[in-house]
Amino acid sequence: MSEFSNLLSELIQSENINVASLTRYCGLDRSTMYKLINGKRSPASRELVQKIAEFIHLNPWERQRLMEAYNLTRLGPETYYQRRDILQFILNLNEFRKRPALPEDSVPEKFSGLRGDAVPLSGRLQVSAAVHSIFRQAAASDSSRNEIGILAQPELLKSLNLLPVLTGTGNNLKVQHIICLNSTPPAVPPRYNYNLQGLGGIVAFFGTGCQYEPFYYYDHLENHDSSFHLMSCLFLSEEGAVLCSTDLSDGYFFRSGEMTAPLRQHFQKLLSLARPMVLSFRSSQLFQLEQMPQLVSKSRDAFSLSYAPCLGSCLTPELLDKYLCGNLPERESLLERLTAYLGTSVWTHNYFSGEGLEQFMKTGQIPELPAELFGPLEPGDRIRLLRQYAELQNSGLDIRMYGGYLNQYPPNFHLLSGSNLGYMLFIDPSGRCSCLILEEANLIRAFFDFSSSLAEMELLASAQETHGALQRVLDTFGG
User: 3-75: what CATH class?
Assistant: First the structure.
């Protein structure tokens, strides 16, 4: 039996459905229908599933359940749940990037219990206070070698509420974070992609201002989190070290160099065995003008997912010169680099939201160009640029608007995905950009599978619908 056949059998029994009548309505023979009910065959199409739903008179929630069971059976659990989790990752990005405030009384400014070179810690409050103590001292230090080492899972950092401590620390603080990624998908429900959740758990740290560098290694996560592992989490700085259990129930605080030196050596050994999870660039100008052409050369058949349409490739040298800020140092050289960069940004598949399209027409700001370099377009130039963009559909490019859940695509996120390419651009409320290149192969494959399956998942409008929407916007704003 499959997920679909189990649910179909349940609905037939609960609604007292005549199978012969259902078979005739769907245009099937008796043998095929019973194979569907018994799980020996999957529905041939979504249209057949919709016909079954119509005959049984399912409400919207039941219809969605039946369609999800069909997709789960057709794709298999691993692919189905992976696509679902990536969709949730994108839609929940604003939640991932929230920076919780640090209540004044949540963790003492100075932990009075930290006396001596090796102090046992008992209970979550003491462990949390010890970790916060060394983080705050490191964040306030003006030492040239100002580094923090972390060996802990992302969810532990969230429970410790470390994000506010690191926010605004400045580029002189380097945080190296080793994370365990799951080597096998979960075998039983609830199935979710832990590695994707891990990526979501660290996204906000790239916007804190410090040099945040995540690394990864593989293990069976169930074994990694076992309570039989003694003190498997480590927080390390020049001021001291905290070694603690994964549930923060107990640990030790070490202060002296004699005590922390072996832990520092062990962390460096682990760091040499781990691999970078992402490469990050805090300057959008540096990344886009220098790194993007090299990155794009890896995958020409890339999928670009963004809030607004990617219009940069339609900019002429005259428009670039007109809107590039006039008081920039080495402006002519920068203009040449911008022209070369935009020549690489013609994506085979370009997907965007209707809301983002209207936002461009109202503001004239092109999201993929740094706002500190490039001014907003005048209304007439917006119209001309969008008309040129609409004509790209006729040249064979896959230009589509989102449909379904992706209509809620976040305005501060751009994803570029290829078979061997994964790039993310996050923009915080102040306009500062964080550019990430995915390095972990399974995450790259997962995002590419998702991006290349949007039409199949009914998360895109048709090319005709997109063309109609572009024309309506042009008519509205063009007068």
Answer: mainly alpha
Contacts of 243 (CB under 8 A, 6+ apart): 231, 233, 234, 251, 252, 254, 263
| The residue type at 284 | S
Helix, strand or coil, per DSSP, at residue 299: coil
Residue 108 is which amino acid?
A: P
CA pair distance 212, 426, nearest whole angstrom: 15
Tell me, what's the pLDDT at 110? Answer: 46
Strand partners, 150: 177, 235
Report pLDDT digits (tens) over 127-173: 999 999 888 888 887 776 689 999 999 999 988 988 888 887 666 78
Cβ atoms of residues 235 and 267 within 8 Å = no
Burial (0-12, 13-18, 19+ Cβ within 10 Å), 172? middle
pLDDT band at 288 (very low <50, low <70, confident <90, very high): low
Return residue ranges of the chain for CATH 3.30.870.10. 118-276
Buried-exposed string 39-60: b where 16+ CB fall within 10 A, e elsewhere:
bebebeeeebbbbbbebbebee
Structure token pair of residue 81: 């749940």
Question: pLDDT tens digits, residue range 179-219?
Answer: 998 877 655 555 667 888 888 888 888 878 788 999 999 98
Q: With 0-12 CB in 10 A as exposed, 13-18 as middle and 19+ as buried, what is 434?
A: buried
Amino acid at 224: H
For residue 434, list its beta bridge partners: 426
For the chain, give the percent of residues with pLDDT over 70: 84
Residue type, 244: C
Long-range contacts of the stretch 185-192 (C-beta < 8 A, 24+): 185/77, 185/78, 191/77, 191/81, 192/81, 192/85
Longest dimension (CA), the chain: 82
pTM confidence score: 0.83
Distance CA 437, CA 447 (A): 12
CATH of 118-276, one of 3.90.1310.10, 3.30.870.10, 3.40.1190.20, 3.40.630.30: 3.30.870.10
Q: Where are the domain boundaries for CATH 1.10.260 in the chain?
A: 3-75
Pairwise CA distance, residues 202 & 289, whole Å? 26
Considering only residues 343 and 227, tell me which one the structure prediction assigns the higher pLDDT. Answer: 343
Query: What residues contact residue 304 under an 8 Å CB cut-off, 6+ apart?
Result: 310, 347, 349, 350, 351, 414, 415, 416
Tokens read off for 245: 């259990």
